[in-house]
Design brief:
The complex is a heterodimer of chains A (112) and B (209).
Chain A: E1 5-9, E2 14-18, H1 26-35, E3 50-57, E4 69-74, E5 79-85, H2 86-96, E6 100-105, E7 109-111
Antiparallel strand pairs in A: 1-2, 3-5, 3-6, 4-5
Chain B: H1 3-9, H2 11-16, E1 25-30, E2 44-49, H3 61-70, E3 87-92, E4 99-100, H4 102-114, E5 119-122, E6 124-126, H5 135-147, E7 150-154, E8 176-177, E9 180-188, E10 194-202
Parallel strand pairs in B: 1-3, 1-5, 2-3, 5-7, 7-8
Antiparallel strand pairs in B: 9-10
The chains are: A alpha+beta (112), B alpha/beta (209).
């Protein structure tokens, strides 16, 4: 099972974690701490390696950030798939939060 | 799909009204397809492999699903599919272990839409729950709202508990198949003896959306 999905809300500048019940609330706390400009050591273990993320933004220039590798664009969904370090995603959210409507981590699927 | 189950689900009443899937094109997303399966002979009008592993079904899941939907009942008409006159368009999306990624699933759904399917069966789910705003759920909502395609999604095998439905079963516009029906049936063995067997079968116990 993956660790979690988190979403950034432009409305209240919060990160909402949607996660399997067995994943502890520590990640919720860690994301909140990260959002408050203080990246918690608790959060850092989840930031290893580049991952795929989905980004919805009002400003396409956000996707030109050098920390993001644009993989695919889905204009009809208003989403772009990017590859980035999780830590950089959080930093970009903090820097350009007003332009970003939605961020979620790519999740795996499997046959039932 | 056995005739008894079709009768129990009310499908035989639809057949009696000549609703057999004729003229309907069903898109299936999944593990691949056995193109030589006698039940699917003449049924598959197009296939595309999005997995880069070849269209062959190494798991068997979607060959079974396709037979349940549109199987001809080649060896026994009582085992034909629910919409046995329907056509099938198939998109393979999974790796050999049955896993798939979101962008592949969205690309497959878009391709199926381009093949003018009327309905899509999606028996794959995410490994974690969503609120229905994830990319694949958005794509399902888009196909239903903008292109008029019905997308039927499996709810998963983890319920019935809170937070057990993944993507795209959580999509607002997607009917989601939930529930397991325990069926005890008696099988006649080759030596003539009768044997009881319990099977679990999915059925539309509750419709979301």
């Amino acid at each position: 099972m993956p660790d979690c999905i988190y979403r950034f809300s432009a409305a209240d500048k919060s990160i909402c974690l949607i996660e399997p019940p067995h994943v502890g609330p520590c990640l919720v706390k860690a994301c909140c701490v990260a959002l408050s400009h203080d990246l918690s050591p608790q959060f850092k273990p989840a930031m290893r390696g580049k991952l795929k993320f989905w980004v919805q933004t009002k400003d396409p220039k956000v996707l030109q950030d050098s920390r993001l590798q644009l993989l695919k664009n889905y204009p009809h969904l208003g989403l772009a798939e990017v590859c980035a370090l999780e830590e950089d995603i959080v930093k970009i959210i903090l820097e350009k939060g007003a332009e970003i409507l939605h961020v979620s981590k790519a999740i795996p699927f499997h046959t039932l | 799909m056995t005739h008894g189950i079709c009768r129990r689900l009310g499908v035989t009443r639809l057949w009696a009204q000549s609703l057999t899937g004729k003229g309907i094109r069903v898109g299936i997303v999944g593990t691949g397809i056995d193109l030589s399966h006698p039940d699917l002979e003449g049924k598959i009008v197009a296939t595309r492999d999005f997995s880069t592993r070849g269209i062959t079904d190494y798991i068997g899941h979607e060959t079974a699903v396709a037979s349940i939907i549109a199987g001809r009942g080649a060896k026994n008409w009582r085992l034909r599919g629910i919409a046995y006159d329907a056509e099938v368009v198939f998109a393979k999306v999974t790796q050999d272990d049955g896993s798939a990624e979101e962008d592949v699933l969205i690309d497959a759904l878009e391709w199926l839409a381009s093949q003018r399917v009327h309905v899509i069966n999606f028996s794959i789910t995410s490994d974690c729950v969503t609120d229905g705003r994830d990319p694949v759920s958005r794509e399902v909502n888009y196909l239903v709202e903008k292109k008029g395609i019905g997308v039927v999604c499996a709810a998963g095998n983890y319920g019935p508990v809170h937070y057990s439905i993944g993507s795209p079963g959580a999509a607002e516009q997607a009917p989601t198949l939930l529930g397991l029906l325990k069926v005890r049936r008696r099988l006649r063995l080759e030596d003539g003896r009768l044997n009881s067997e319990e099977q679990s079968l999915s059925y539309p116990a509750r419709i979301q959306g």
